[in-house]
Amino acid sequence: MNPPLIYVDIDDVLAESTRACAEIARRDFAKNVKFEEMSVFDLRVSLSLAEHEYEDFMNAVHTPRFLEQLPVVRGARKTLGQWIRGGAEINLLTGRPPSSQPSTLKWLKKNTIPYNSLEFVDKYNRHANQGAIPLQELNGRTYDFVIEDSFETASYLAKALNTSVLLFDRPWNRQQTSHSSSIERVHNWAEIENRVNFR
Ligand SMILES: [Mg+2]
Fold first, then answer.
1. CA of 94 to the centre of ligand 1 (A)
2. Total structural domains within the chain
């Protein structure tokens, strides 16, 4: 049997990114939006950022200083460590711009996150010509599990890769329900650990 192959997203699955984004929006852009009220994936919409504010905001949340201080989602490190010790291969696939690779690697090292590989995927059609892998290039990969918080990415992967997707429950994916039996909602890493049983 091949070792289990697991796809793990970074932002809002491994890192508490959007809570920190909301804090920047509050502090620097006077947008007082509670995390639980962020009911759409697009930060421009959920944080009510005007067109002229959006670019500055996106720059602010991709600085090394911001990315390197993000807290780790509770329980993630322990579960990834158990999986790797159990023979699994962990692929981290992030929708961040490829330019954030040095900060992302630093964050992974600083937080001693166990993983096997890191790839930058153009999940949201944002990083064309920046060196990110097009989402369609993942077709044909045989992940045993995909862990994502983006409903659109989760839906695409469930269908295109015919794989089991664990959708990490977040305010922006709560109103989206899938009729696919391949997508299952999970709320924390303890649930994910129980669900992914490959031994
Ligand atoms: Mg994410």
1. 7
2. 2
